Amino acid sequence: MTKLLQGEGIKASRSAVSSFLSRYRRTGSIQDAKRSGRKTKLSNDHVKFIDDRMKENDELTSAELTEKLSKECHVEVSATTVRGVKRNVLVWKSETARYCQFVREPNKMKRFIFASNALLNKDTFEDVIFTDETIVQIEQYARICFRKDGSQPKRKGRPKHRLKVHVWGGISNRGATSVCIFTGIMESIGYQNILERNLLPFIKKTYPDGHRLWQDNDPKYTSNSTKDWFIRNGINHWKAPPESPDLNCIENLWAALKHHIRKYVKPKNKEELVAGIKEFWSQLTIETCRNYIRGVHKVLPAIVASEGGPQQSTTDGTVTKYQLQVESYITFLNNRFCQ
Predict the structure, then answer these.
(1) Which candidate, 293, 270, 287, 290, places its Cα nearest to that of 167?
(2) Rounded Cα gap, residues 156 and 280, in angstroms
């Protein structure tokens, strides 16, 4: 029955359908049951007050709303009553807070312009080398585990200060650079040495016809010393918009690497950790790199749709509705900045 209703465009839970059918068998009527006639404790104005307070601060609890009703509206009700109104009437549901990258207002337009131009020019990123650095630490347990019902949970030890290493690497549509694993603090000169050993040979071998280097805006990546090094070595640095880790597809690769370390490698010392990183990196194929880079084509229309802000998720997990707005946003961009 639920599937039939969904086919007609009607959303209803299985419990709601079951309740309706039970009432119909009992009463023989499809009309709602008569109410007791008891007056509601909260008027429409009070309900609107609750809704407005929730819109101002979506972290307010029912107890806090009850206190606000008492102080500002002089209405004495229980937190249970407020909870019922909030949940059943206003449809405010609790969920785990979801976080996204922080984008300041001045940088939203820069992200918007970048994404719009990339879409307008149908950039395939064929010649782009996406590079970044991350920290990988010893982790021996995955974030989810299972136990049999009735058995005691198994505690898994985690040291307070875990050994960690820095990892630098790059991916492109033609494959991955060699990986560099090191410890300590990296400054501009150290970064240039890493590029000289790992990036320059890759460019010479894989991109003799030209390239674009993508990196974030970390000070050691954009210092005058590093810029001079780029010029001396013929590096075509493609400046990324600020606060845009979502545009660097290698971030997803780092997440996969850390998952691989904690779930499959489970290192006990530095040697095992380094070996696990190298093993993961050696398995990166050209097709794997391309799969990560294809994700950028989904991110671009999402950034345009949010006008440079953080990406907004869709109900069905796709970016179809973003793609429908791309042309209108590009038109807006051209009208505003190209007159």
Answers:
(1) 270
(2) 25
How many Cβ atoms sit within 10 Å of the Cβ of residue 60?
17
Which candidate, 298, 294, 304, places its Cα nearest to that of 318?
298
Mean pLDDT computed over 314-336: 47
**Full-model pTM:** 0.70
**β-strand partners of 181:** 167
317 falls in which pLDDT band (50, 70, 90)?
Answer: very low
What percentage of residues in the chain have a pLDDT greater than 70? 89
All residues at 6 or more sequence positions from 241 whose CB lies less than 8 Å from its CB, including other chains: 107, 110, 111, 113, 114, 247
In the structure encoding, which two tokens stand for residue 54, read together? Answer: 């929730």
Q: How do strand 128-137 and strand 180-182 relate by DSSP bridges?
A: unpaired
Helix, strand or coil for residue 94?
coil
Vertex 28 angle, CA 26 and 34, to 5° = 80
- Phi and psi dihedrals of 235, rounded to 5? -85, 125
